[in-house]
Structure prediction request, 155 residues.
Amino acid sequence: HSMPEGKIAFVKGAVEVILERCSQIMKDGGLKSLDDNGRADIMKANEQLASDALRVLALAYKKLDRDDTDEDYIEKDLVFIGLVGMMDPPRPEAVEAVKVCKNVHMRPVMITGDISSQPLQWRRRWGYIPKETWCLQERSFRSCLTRNSRPWCTR
Prediction:
């Protein structure tokens, strides 16, 4: 975005991904170095929001000192500015698909990019996810595919 003080890139995404790319945090009206303790505090806040069945995104920015659209340049040394937790209720077709699985005695497997405990909170709030549902984070699922192992088939 073009601003009077120059160009600024704003980014949003999964908390873990954005945090890996941040070197500073906007806090108390100024920039501070983002250390491991700060990252741990942010992850704790993320888990708290997710435990309330909210979808959580991290927000960050970077002042650009050159006209470069290279993602490696733009998405490095970001300034963390906060978390956003938003209600993201299940789509009606997802609820129906889970009901169909239950009726034919299939165990649903949920693959999510969110914190793996979040579906448990969705169950508490919306009640449509059966207790026997397996939940895998996308990262774990991809790892299983590359190792050619399928843990959900072993139980």
User: Anything to note?
Assistant: The first strand starts at residue 2 and ends at 3. Helices lie at 15-20, 36-51, 71-74, 92-103, 118-126, 138-147. The two ends are 51 Å apart (CA to CA). The mean pLDDT is 79.
